[in-house]
Predict the 3D structure of the following.
Amino acid sequence: MKKKILLGLVIFLVAIQFVPISKTNPPVVQEQTLSSAVEPSVTPQVLTLLKGACYDCHSNETVYPNYTRAQPLGWWIKGHITAGREKLNFSEWASYSGKEKIKQAQECIEVMEQGRMPMKSYVWMHPTGKLSDQDEKILMDFFAQLGG
Ligand code: HEC
């Protein structure tokens, strides 16, 4: 009996490997992005930090690590990307109203202060997500400017 359950589990795990996630990112329309749509302009330093810590889930420039080919891990990660983009997408920044932009910027400060973002599981796997106190300050100052 135990053997059958184990075999079933192995078959299941093998089978789900044939259901990959889509790694096709929505298009990046340059004029819609945070970098194009923001005054004061985004400095290269801020952009590097954002790309390293937030863009994989909050932009259309997601880079998918190889391990997203392994299910159910890939499904789980894809879930974060879909939910993250829905909440906040720096590639579609220009589509937000003035009010929404301010709210988004304020929420960015909030989630960083609370240590909720970048997600812990992301930081474990991505050295670029590990922000020093100074990196955090640079980003929060940027968001403070953004939120007026
Ligand atoms: C691994 C994916 C991932 C990364 C990396 C990530 N986020 Fe998120 N983010 C999410 C998900 C998923 C949600 C929606 C669920 C939630 O609120 O926890 C979210 C929600 C948010 C929200 C909305 C919060 C709310 O309460 O509605 C903000 C603001 C945010 N993230 C900012 C950031 C910032 C800023 C960074 C980088 C410093 C970042 N995130 C990095 C996945 C991510």
Summary: Residues 2-146 form one domain. Residues 4 and 92 are 50 Å apart (CA to CA). The mean pLDDT is 95.
